[in-house]
Amino acid sequence: MTPEEYTEALEAERNARNVRAKYIVREEHGGYMLLRRNGSGQSWGVTSYTTHATAQLAADVLNRLKEDEA
């Protein structure tokens, strides 16, 4: 595999993972966490918000940006 082919394969894998990822909101510790969930269902916190509406707006914007990038 040439370096160019390797780079293309890595980029294709990154794009495939990004398609499966999704931003979600979960209530935790009296606040709302914006989480990024991967295709395997694992998620991790990105940041926290005080209101659900603000957290959901951020998740919606990030999911839309992800779709536009694809």
Task: Describe the protein's topology.
Layout: H1 3-20, E1 22-28, E2 31-37, E3 43-49, H2 52-69
Antiparallel strand pairs: 1-2, 2-3
Structure report:
It is a single chain. Strands 1-2-3 form a three-stranded antiparallel beta sheet. It contains two helices and three strands; from the N terminus they run H-E-E-E-H. The two termini are 26 Å apart. A hairpin with a 2-residue loop joins strand 1 and strand 2. With 70 residues, the chain is α+β, with helices and mostly antiparallel strands.
Strand content: 25-35%
Order of helices and strands: HEEEH
Unreliable stretches covering 5 or more consecutive residues: none
Main β-sheet, spatial strand arrangement: 1-2-3
**Number of DSSP strands?**
3
Given helix and strand content, the structural type is alpha+beta
Helix content: 40-55%
Q: What's the shape? A: elongated
Oligomer: single chain
How many alpha or pi helices? 2
Amino-to-carboxy terminus distance? 26 Å
CA-atom Rg in angstroms: 15 Å
Average pLDDT, all residues: 88
| Biggest sheet features | 3 strands, antiparallel
Core attributes:
70 residues, elongated, alpha+beta
